[in-house]
Specification:
- The structure holds two protein chains of two kinds.
- Chain A is 43% helix and 11% strand.
- Chain A is an alpha+beta fold.
- In chain B, α6 (150-160) runs antiparallel to α7 and α8 runs parallel beside α10.
- Classes of the chains: A alpha+beta, B alpha/beta.
- Chains A and B meet through α2, α4 and α5 of A and α1, β11, β15 and α15 of B.
Chain lengths: 163, 539
């Protein structure tokens, strides 16, 4: 369940229950529970959703429906570093396409993909409120703005293994 | 309380952080300590100083000198020369443009700017409640709780003419009145900080730079309508907003400004931050409430409206961040004062975020009635790189597109509707069809999919535009897309589908020739669209 591959890991299930206790055992806390689960386990596994459904007494489909609706929730493991490049109008007109090509050139993957070594996931997303410094991207929680294609390789290098 | 002979404000807004402000701050603190000045000089982290393009910036008081584009290497010189010897480092002084000249500090607003909501931003440490209180913070709450009845507060807000700043401009006092009169065993106040409309970043600035203003506005709203629980719904991408707001709530609670007996009045109210998880549609109020209840953020049919049937089916006031930020000022200074600002139908100030092809993108506050030219040219410095203005998308992708002839129109409800305040400015080199394709892509991606006109409409809209950018469209397409977007406007369940075609329809009369070039001549005058006869598939 994130940290292990076992389908019925007792420890993982206990960890999920602990998160539910921390956030409050109520259906209305589903989104905080999913946030916390992803923070501690990296992504939201099918097994974790089943545990949440059983603990909260709601159908698995409800948990799955909510988890899949929101773009910040991951239902499968993603790269160690997540690159989110904005392509909303202010970033688009300031050249986000060239930044996208530069990222692809630097790490060899298209938007929506994860590098083979699992180090990067690359996503093209909607506005992140960084329009004042367009074109902009976030890598994990770090913000990069006024991007140029030339600046991309050195920014990404900071997140490469061994650096 | 220790007395310091000088204060150095460090801009730690997002824009400055990515210019290395955190390292500059660290170096400054270290250098001050190294020179044994830590008991004489205080370093204060502030929110965004509003000096877009100024890099890492410092303001040194009491002189009020602003240094821009400061690097770690400049710190020893600033500390040695200015803080130790009292000689200003001229080469780093910010002048509003690029070159050096002593300025009066950001207190002096630029031209038509009028800072009411942004008054404290970049001046106080957003994590310090003492600084907020020192500048008059929580006075309005004290006045409301000790000398006003709930009904009097609602009357005052009604009289002020305050309208919703999320872009819909619904009268706030009326909304509060509905919620106050509605029957319910519990009531809620929700602050909508799910700022997702591209081009808008004002709410982020307020939450990062002055979160107590929102808390104060919410407690006053809660007292007025009889609510005891509130939520601030902040989009999941705004990490710093969440951090500053949560911290501010904790401190306010410790000081008895939230909790069971606020200011000893017996009134009870508390606030929780609810972190969104990435869904544009949650900015729509009914979708936002669904999200707080733990469900998919799907909008609901209206009526009933949230003031009578909101969160958990209870009466709920939902206001935008900027709307709530106005409340303490109205209560403190009175509706009569507020009535002196703005235009008859649009009272107060509005915060704008010009971005795109302007010289100084940023956040600027002006009274309603200022012109588009005031904001785009006087404040944001006009079009960068010596290019000409082509158009402005008012409020974001769901707003109208206007051309150069709208520059002298007034930004207010009576004339040019400013939406939530984004002004996405494009220059003559941009292609209107390319921009509309990008907008269609945005709405297609963000449609929640529950109602047919929006789900299918946004998809077909994107298909049309993909054909046009590939040179595979035909002239009759324009009529079809006009009809389609008109249907979406009439039949979609919520604002997302209703407004998805507004930018396209408003751009038609302005850029008819450009659309014709793409559809009839199969050329892109700006040379941006591929025109390769291979339309992108809509996945």
């Amino acid at each position: 369940m994130g940290s292990c591959d076992s389908k019925s890991c007792v420890e993982c299930e206990a960890a999920v229950v602990k998160i539910i206790e921390k956030c409050g055992r109520a259906e209305t806390n589903l989104i905080p529970i999913l946030h916390e689960l992803q923070r501690s386990m990296g992504y939201i596994s099918t097994e974790a959703m089943e545990t949440i459904a059983a603990e909260l007494g709601i159908p698995v489909g409800r948990v799955h429906g909510t988890a899949t609706f929101y773009s910040l929730f991951y239902l499968k493991p993603h790269g160690k570093n997540v690159i989110r490049l904005c392509d909303s109008p202010p970033c688009h007109i300031e050249g986000s396409k060239a930044i996208r090509d530069a990222v692809t050139k630097a790490i060899g993957i298209q938007p929506g993909e994860t590098t083979e070594d699992g180090n990067f996931t690359f996503e093209v997303v909607s506005c992140m409120g960084l329009c004042g410094v367009a074109p902009a991207m976030m890598i994990n929680d770090d913000v990069y703005g006024n991007l140029t294609p030339e600046a991309v390789p050195s920014i990404l290098a900071k997140y490469k293994e061994g650096n | 309380m220790a007395l310091f002979r000088a204060h150095v404000l460090v801009d730690t807004g997002t824009a400055a952080i990515l210019k290395g402000a955190a390292a500059v701050r660290g170096a400054l603190v270290e250098e001050i300590r190294r020179r044994g000045l830590e008991n004489e000089i205080k370093v204060v982290e502030t929110g965004d100083l509003g000096l877009a393009g100024a890099g890492a910036a410092l303001v040194v008081y009491p002189e009020g000198v602003t240094y821009a584009n400061v690097t770690v290497a400049d710190i020893p010189e600033i500390v040695e020369e200015h803080l130790l010897k009292g000689r200003q480092v001229k080469r780093l002084i910010y002048s509003g443009g690029e070159t050096a000249a002593v300025v009066e500090a950001p207190k002096a607003p630029r031209s038509a700017e009028m800072r009411v909501i942004l008054h404290n931003i970049g001046v106080i440490d957003p994590t310090s409640i003492d600084e907020y209180i020192a500048l008059g913070g929580y006075e309005a709450l004290g006045k409301a709780l000790t000398s006003m009845k709930p009904g009097e507060i609602i009357e005052e807000i009604k009289k002020s003419g305050l309208k919703g700043r999320g872009g819909a401009f619904f009268p706030t006092g009326l909304k509060w009145d509905f919620a106050a009169r509605a029957e319910g065993d519990s009531k809620y106040v929700v602050c909508n900080a799910d700022e997702g409309e591209p081009g808008n970043f004002k709410d982020r600035l307020i939450l990062e730079g002055d979160p107590h203003q929102i808390i104060e506005g919410m407690v006053i709203a809660a007292y007025a309508v009889g609510a005891h629980k509130g939520y601030i719904y902040i989009r999941g991408e705004y990490h710093q907003s969440v951090a500053h707001t949560e911290r501010a709530i904790d401190v306010a609670r410790e000081m008895g400004l939230l909790g069971t007996d606020i200011m000893g009045s017996g009134f009870e109210f508390d606030i929780e931050v609810f972190k969104g998880a990435g869904a544009y549609v949650c900015g729509e109020e009914t979708a936002l409430l669904e999200s707080i209840e733990g469900r998919r953020g799907e909008s609901q049919m209206k009526p009933p409206f949230p003031p009578t049937h909101g969160l958990h089916g209870r009466p709920t006031v939902i206001n935008n961040v900027e709307t709530l930020a106005n409340v303490p000022h109205i209560i403190a200074k009175g509706a009569d004062w507020y009535q002196t600002i703005g235009t008859p139908q649009s009272r107060g100030t509005k915060i704008f975020s010009p971005c795109g092809d302007v010289q100084y993108p940023g956040v600027y506050e002006v009274p309603f009635g200022a012109t588009l030219r005031d904001v785009v040219y006087t404040m944001a410095g006009g079009i960068k790189n010596g290019r000409r203005l082509k158009g402005v998308l008012m409020g974001g992708p769901s707003g109208v597109m206007v051309g150069e002839d709208a520059l002298d129109r007034k930004l207010c409800g009576e004339d040019l509707n400013p939406g939530a305040g984004a002004l996405i400015v494009i220059n003559e080199d941009r292609c209107i069809v390319d921009l509309m394709t990008n907008i269609a892509q945005f709405f297609y991606h963000e449609s929640c999919g529950q109602c047919v006109p929006c789900r299918e409409g946004t998809k077909r809209m994107l298909e049309f535009l993909n054909w046009w950018t590939a040179g595979a469209g035909s002239e009759g397409d324009i009529k079809l897309l006009e009809q389609l977007t008109a249907t979406m406007a009439a039949a979609s369940r919520c604002g997302l589908g209703q407004f998805a075609g507004v930018a396209f329809r408003s751009s038609l009369p302005l850029f008819e020739d450009e659309y014709k070039a793409h559809l009839k001549d199969k050329t892109c005058p700006a040379g941006i669209c591929p025109m390769d006869k291979v339309p992108q598939e809509v996945a």
